[in-house]
Amino acid sequence: MNREILRLAIPNIVSNISVPLLSSVDTILMGHLSPAHLAALGVAAMIFTFLYGNFNFLRMGTTGMSAQAYGRGDSRALTYTLLRALLLAFFLGLLLVLFQKPLIDAGIYLMNVDDSYEAMVRSYFDIRIYTAPAIFMIYALMGWYFGLQNAWYPLWITVFINIVNLVLSLYFVQVLGMGVEGTAYGTLIAQYAGLLLAVGLLYRYRSRFVHVAWREIFHKEAFFAFLHINKNIFIRTVALTFVLAFFYAQAAKAGALMLSVMILLLQFMIWMSFAIDGFANAAESLTGRYYGAKEWRLFDKAVRYSFYWGGGFALLFALVYCVGGRTILEVYTNQQPVIERAMAFMKWVALMPLLSFGAFIWDGVFVGMTASKSMRDAVMISMLLFLGLFYATNGINFAWSLWLSFLMFFLFRTLLQTWMFVKHGRRLR
Asked: What's the predicted TM-score (pTM) here?
């Protein structure tokens, strides 16, 4: 089982870490221009995290359903799962492009964007919003590959996108002096290049595709089952990204300095989460496969070993953050007031991986089981507890209350999902 987990997790970890690596380069580029540039990029990126992250169900739902179909050896289900996911992805991406004006207006209002960097936020958004159809279709394709126990194709796709993005962002910002617009154009071009690669890689699986009757794609019972699973994951993801957006919005109320501090601290969260997500992605693929094949002994073993590996990596990140926190901050920015303010939170940042890794691993297990309702309920309850804790304590110390509540949100999810699994086991829905 260790070999199976590592076979899937290692490409996922490399793939996932390349994402914060790219965002880190963008953050470094802006962090060496001015606090306003850093704040603008952070807020604009958060708006897209909220928008695009909410549609990650296109990957998660596709992974769970295709993994179970793979476990059953059902080529018909594999074919129609992919086609339904791609069509839904394209339609949703097109909707975001069509409604871009009200979306950015709402984002600026809800994120408490300051006048000093609002124009930069709008410029970034107006360019990057056109990546929506490409990103959503990539979500669907990568989820399908994960379901077929192929973690290498998502790795190739992600690394290719990030290399193109990195080269273009450096060129547009450093050579052409385009500022935040340069990072947006780099992302736009890279995502469509990645989509072409992701579609081209389907050629290997041509023997698995069955003849398509287009009316069957919209078969009422099958299509609504697909939408029902994705609906619950969508609601769960809205709640999750609301917590992140709330975190940013509250930090923005305290001014550009505090917002810059929180943006940098969340980089530590991003690095850790994408690494631990490698094992969560492995859990999605393996538990979905064994769940579909009804191999319960292997299913239970996959769950247990995923937690072993996730916990081990969480401990490693905690040690790195505890020892090297200042060094990492100095890589991100040369603004000493930002660094000194951020260092006051570093002990909490070091504790973060240990408190949160369970939530990531449980999400992977629940996705593999297509237990979308339980995953939705756990995040919704945790969101309410997060808000309650913040408003009960923010009068004592605003900044500490915000960070503590954010950490506890992940612990709440871990405890709730553990209780659900212990109570219902493989009957989870």
From this structure: 0.73
